[in-house]
Structure formats: structure tokens, C-alpha cells
Amino acid sequence: MSEIKKIVLAYSGGLDTSVILKWLIEQYQCPVIAFAADVGQEEDWDQVREKGLATGAEKVIISDLKESFVRDYIFPAFRANAIYEGSYLLGTSLARPLIAMEQVAVAEAEGADAVSHGATGKGNDQVRFEISYMALNPRLNIIAPWRIWDLNSRTKLIAYAEKHSIPIPVTKEKPYSSDENLLHISFEGGILEDPWQEPEESMFKLTRSPESAPDKPTYVHIEFERGDPVSIDGERLEPVALMIRLNKLGGENGIGRLDMVENRFVGMKSRGVYETPGGTVLRTAHRDLETITLDREIMKIRDSLVPRYSELIYNGFWFSPEMKLMQKTIDTSQETVSGEVRLKLYKGNCIPVGRRSSKSLYQESFATFEEDEVYTQSDAAGFIRLNGLRLKMEALRKK
């Protein structure tokens, strides 16, 4: 322990990292810098700073990462239609590499020789943080308190916090943990550990229940350029403002709730409840625009990459060589994905009802059921015979 000279802790001001801050100071007897990342969570940052200093941090550094989070992480992932196990839109997974990158930059600027995080030894975040640290600066020491201390339960953490007069945002009666950013809010643990138990309505923060959503649909127009959203209802918006607007529209209409049991990278199954209102709307619109702007074979190849791409994000390999290769491939596929989608938002449903693009491959003159002069229907007979030839030969062989 004595060789550690200075530590930068990924700090939120919540239960885990508040206890960890005090514990690191006691255990390593060295300065600890509390680093907090603003990725769009609702937070009193003055209070976070004061709490960190009161708990013993040498310095509290708060970095505004909202713009980078949307532009460099959310938008690239949604160009790929990233989704984990068919449901999860990767809100926490996308934020971790950005936080780790800024934490490493702070450690380098402050002359620290170690970084620390509050992820448990059972979860995915420990992998995401530490693989990112290693990819960005392998010389830094990594301290993962949850894997080495004896405070191995929420109950013990709360007792430790009370002993050291550390204010905590959770109670023994409501001990689930949450993680919030511009893309989503997640809820895990505590009362949610029983997968049969329905989440309480009071828990949800970003979305109305579908039952209480408006009785009339809301129509919204989203415009894209090269796979990225650029305007809502004709108003061009910067990335952060655009996500805030989409979250509001989706949340008001009961869109974006998810309750799932997922497979963690470390091997166990875990129940998570998520709210991703804007992301759900965005992904639906993007996929719909691709139906008229992407070549069929390009779409097949891109779609075949989505499970692997999403798994890389979930498992923490954002800075890996394979991720860079896949992102370049996906971004190339998006060169023609420009245009506008009209959506109907209604009581938890996000329904595409119109799409148009100057780069559209859809031609009404070809697709029409009316008389046309561009398609000779009799040509289909030879096409069918050739495609069915191998099946015909197989059937003859059997007879």
C-alpha cells in the first residue's frame, strides 16, 4: 500500500464512492482526488464538491462531458443500432469508457499513480473501467475496493457511512442503486433482486406510465444526416439539446421502459430496470430511415455486426482495435442515411408513420401495383426458376 502516492477516484457522491473515498484515505494514507463526470445526470454539483471535500478529498474535479457523451458515444452507437440481448440500449455501458478516459487524463494531469472506481466485484462496470484504464494508460495502478475490503454488502456500507458521518442517498428500506445519464437511468439491486417483483411506479423518473400518458398521439419529425439526428420538427439542435428534447417527448408518452434479466459479462444473470425514452425514439426513427436509404446487402452485413458490436460495448471493449474497425465499417454504411422520419408516439408505443429522403432507394414507379412501364413481370418467372433449381434437383434426387 505504501508505494501508492496519489489516487484519482471515480466519484459520484453516492453511497459506494463516498465510503470508498474515506476508505482509500485511511488505507493508503495518501492524497485522493475525487473526480466526478457530468454525463447529464440530475445532480447538485456544488453539493457533490462540498461532500467530497468534507469526506477528505484533497481536491474535487468535476468535468462536463455531456457534449462528448452524445456526439462521440451515443450517436456512433445509434448509427449501428446497438442493442444488447435484443432489449438493452447500453446507457451505462456507453458512459463508462468516456468517464474512464477523462479519469485517466485527470490522473496524468495531477501526477497521480493510481485510479480507483466504485464498481463491485460482481458487476460489469469493473471490467469496463479497468479495460479502459489499461488501454489508455497501462502504467497506472488500479484499486478496486470491492474486491479487497470486507465491506461486502450494502448493509455494511451504510453502517460504515453512519459511523463516519457520511450522508447517504439510500436507505435500508429502499436500497436499490441507480445510474443516470443523458441516455437513460438504470435501477438494480435491493428490492429489484426478485425478478418476479414488479417495480414500484414511484421508482420511475424519466417516463410516465403508459396508462397515464396522453390520450392523444404526439407526432414528431426527426431529420438525420449521415446517420446522426440533426433536427426535431424542423428545428436544428445541438446534440445535447436534441437528446434532452427526445427524452422529454418519449418520457411524456410513456416510451422507453425496460425490465429485463440480462447476462453479465462476468457470468451471472442480473435483473435491471431501465428508462431510455429518447434513445428508444431515436433508434426506432433511425432504423426506419435505413429502410429506404440502405442497400439491401449493405443492411444485411451491417445487421450481422450489431450483436458483436453491442457485445463489445457491453463488455467494455470500446477502445479495442476490433471496435475501431467495426465503427469505421458502420460509419461507411451511414453515408446515405440522410432524410426525415415521422413518428407517432402514443402510450408507450413509438410508431413510424412516414419517411422520406433525397437519397431514397424506394421508387414508387417500380413498387406500384398499378400499371407501369419499368418492370416486366414475366421476367420473374426465370428468376424464380433459377432460385428454385437446387430445391427442384434435391426433390428429384429423393424420388
The major beta sheet can be summarized as: 5 strands, parallel
What is the beta-strand fraction? 15-25%
- Count, helices: 12
Name given to the CATH homologous superfamily of the largest domain:
Argininosuccinate synthetase, chain A, domain 2
Envelope shape: elongated
In percent, how helical is the residue content?
A: 40-55%
Radius of gyration, whole Å? 25 Å
Distance between the termini: 78 Å
CATH class of the largest domain: Alpha Beta
- Class inferred from helices and paired strands: alpha/beta
Instruction: Tally the beta strands.
Output: 14
SSE arrangement, N to C: EHEHEHHEHEHEEEEEHEEHHHEEHH
Instruction: Provide the residue-averaged pLDDT.
Output: 94
How many domains, in number, for the residues?
3
The second-level CATH architecture of the largest domain is Alpha-Beta Complex
Segments where pLDDT lies below 50 for 5+ residues? none
User: What strand order characterises the main sheet?
Assistant: 3-2-1-4-5
**CATH fold-level label of the largest domain:** Argininosuccinate synthetase, chain A, domain 2
